[in-house]
Amino acid sequence: MPESPYWLAARGRQEEARQVLRELGSPDHDATFTVATERVGRPLDLLRGRLTKITVAMLLLNFAFNWGYWGLQTWLPTLLQDKGLTFDASLGFAALSALMMIPGYVSASLLTGRFGRKKVFLVYVVAAALGGLWFALADSTFELYAGNFVLSFFSLGAWGVWNTWNGEFYPTALRGTGYSWATASQLVATTVAPSAVGALLAGATGFTATMLVINAFMVVTALLAVPLPETEGRGLE
């Protein structure tokens, strides 16, 4: 991946910036960039002015979304055994679920150009939460498969949208810093979620209750996305 043309221009590397545009096929590849002169990457700037609400919502969303995903995926074979599947069958189930993630990614990428990142993300997260509810309340093997396939399809489609949308909230001077904060929030959730779900299972909470707790984080994810700005088609600063 080449460096951002804005980043290169901010460091006086105008010709390298133009070369990146040439490689991308941009009609503006002969342009001379005018860039801001402020110092780049100051972390506290993420919590100033209009960016404050975006940063807080973004960090909480990354935590909730990653918590819901890894809380489920880490313990999926164990949860399925609680529903009567053998260990081998539960691993096969998880593999089939992973296959459903591929069309989820593809469909979301095709839809964002037409409907925008925010709308597609919200629809996919809500659909994933409904699939998780179906999975949590399943009374048959068919419902287990169908609910989890819906959950896998839409949750990973939403992840594909989010990883792009998340990178577009900030101006170039802060984009790398903002995305690193997002990644840090995800890593905290990735660390906490497996242990928390394991504690629920160790406490004999049961399949349905544990799944409902996990699914609640998907609902929180959708709510946190509502105030975030749409970036589809918007020029990056």
UniProtKB/TrEMBL annotation:
Transmembrane segments: 51-70, 90-108, 120-138, 144-165, 177-201, 207-228
One Pfam family hit: Sugar_tr
The organism's place on the tree of life at top rank: Bacteria
Record keywords: Membrane, Transmembrane, Transmembrane helix
Membrane topology of this protein: Multi-pass membrane protein
Compartments where located: Cell membrane
Predominant location: membrane
InterPro entries xref list: MFS_dom, MFS_sugar_transport-like, MFS_trans_sf
Ranges where the Major facilitator superfamily (MFS) profile domain occurs: 54-237
Protein name: MFS transporter
Species of origin: Nonomuraea roseola
